[in-house]
Amino acid sequence: MKRVVILMDMEGNISSTFEINKKGKRLLTHPWGIASTTNGNIFILDRIHSNCEGRLVVLNRDDESVIDIYNGRKGQDFVPRAIMATEADNIIITDCDDPDASLHIFNNSGKLISYYNTRDIGIEQPFSMTFSATGHIYIGGTTLSDSSEKAQLFEINLIET
């Protein structure tokens, strides 16, 4: 099975393909989500285990090299669910299976700049994300499969400097 990320231009022509690293090894296990920043870096959520544990792979679009790989906070499982780029060119990832339930925030070079426990604002299981036309972030919360609770939708006003 191929595990590849293909970048295309606006006409649908392939401009880059990411499948094998410089050492000839498979780059991705199960690509799950993708975002990019204005400096040309590509951020890919990659699931590496059947329990959905994963990592973030940061690639340079120009030379197709791996800039960094983030496996989560030390000693914690990292189960990324959603990824998006912000208006300030940062990357946010939801992690609803972390013991703290969290948002991991990266700069456009792939360095972790902040970590936020979403339970502090009442979001127990952050799962999906999107931007509104007014610049607010909507975070969809999920529930456990055996739970009688309903999923929730949260609106957050993100202030970036």
List its traits:
single chain; 161 residues; mainly beta; Neuraminidase; four-stranded antiparallel β-sheet
Question: How would you sum up this structure, described in words?
Answer:
By secondary structure, this protein is an all-beta fold. It has one domain (5-122): 6 Propeller (Neuraminidase). It is 0% helix and 44% strand. It has no helices and 13 strands. The chain has strands at residues 5-8, 14-18, 31-36, 41-47, 54-60, 66-70, 80-85, 91-95, 102-106, 112-117, 126-131, 137-141, 153-156. The strands form 4 sheets. The protein has a 4-stranded antiparallel beta sheet, with no helix packed on it. Strand 5 and strand 6 (66-70) form a beta hairpin. The chain is globular and about 45 Å long. The relative contact order is 0.13. The model has no long low-confidence stretch (mean pLDDT 85).
| Largest sheet, strands/sense/barrel | 4 strands, antiparallel
Unreliable runs: none
The CATH class? Mainly Beta
What overall geometry do the principal axes of the alpha carbons give? globular
Protein name: TRIM71
Organism: Mytilus coruscus (Sea mussel)
InterPro entries: 6-blade_b-propeller_TolB-like
